[in-house]
Design brief:
Conserved hypothetical protein from pyrococcus furiosus pfu- 392566-001, domain 2; 21 strands; 2 domains; alpha+beta; 6-stranded antiparallel sheet
Length: 411
Amino acid sequence: MSDVRPFRGLRPRAELVQKVACPPYDVLSLDEAAHLAQDNPESFLHVIRAEIDLGPGADPHSQQVYEQSRQKLQEMISDKVMLQDETACFYVYRLIRDGHEQYGLVASVSLDEYENDLVKKHELTRPVKEADRAKHIEILKANAGPVLLAYRARQEIADLIQRICSSSEPVYNFAADDDVDHCLWPISSPGEITQLQETFVSVPALYIADGHHRAAAASRVREIMRSSNPHHSGDEEYNYFLAVAFPDQDLRIMGYNRVVRDLSNLSVEEFLQQVGQKFNVSSSNRREPEAAHLFSMFLDGDWYRLEARPGSFAADDPVEQLDASILQNNLLGPILGIEDPRADQRIDFVGGVRGTLELERRCSQDMRVAFCVYPVAVEQLMAVADEGLVMPPKSTWFEPKLRSGIVVRPI
């Protein structure tokens, strides 16, 4: 079963939502966040990236930054930029980009189910990042950013959500600067709330698509708040986390590309010769791979096509067959010496939404070689999670991105 519950969301006034809503905290550099929030005091970036308001050199993990986040959120509430719904609601969040529509349910999701693996994971978390998000939740007393969840599509849920949306106008309907149309419908009818909860009971599991650190942080905060509450009952808001759940068939994944600073003291000829031992290498005019197990590589102004040789990976293993694993196990690790891509400062990751021109730009600026990776399929992600396994870091880039600040969940 999947335990989802309504909550009293904290939301922007309709006329301000386009100013408030912002990209997630972890897809922007500090400079990008500062630029987007410049001259826009209503931007929710002032809450989720409060270091932009504390001057150059501010430590993003300092107590001062967390207090600044809390202060800004309270200011937005006091100034009635953000208002809390009077009754507990579910929310339908629709995104439209380039003709593609996806409908998600914004809800409170059970941390008991998260800890019992009914909310399934496919990624390890980094302690520093997890601790940062936990502190942010603890100081704000709110989930400021949602976890993106997937579930195997069920027609009765789709029909119910479509019926709800067709019977009323959204409270928000705006086009953001990412060329995505964002719409939101609050659901406050007790009958519709009960129907949604009952239909989700038949969903055997939810899958974290994006937001492992936010979910893990919410679990940490639950432990802190539970230990300090002598009357803990299990129904408190801190026992749940903010999420948006989409049917698997609606989600779109882009490749998550890699750029590397050097060739590990190899000449171009030596490097290409070693790559050729595990890949068929040829010059190419294509900047993006056209199928799984193919890679596009940019080196010294030229694009190459890399095709993984048969036998270079375990085709029946749900993790080893992933293109991120093939690239790591056959090239990045053994040839370029990047054994731990989570920690090695010689590698960086570029979301597919930034395009291949960004890979060329990075190679002209601070990197030497770039790899364009074919997107993971949602079914592959679920297969890895079902086996209790872990995907390589930075395997998936979901588009379109959910905006932060559209619905905040006080705890």
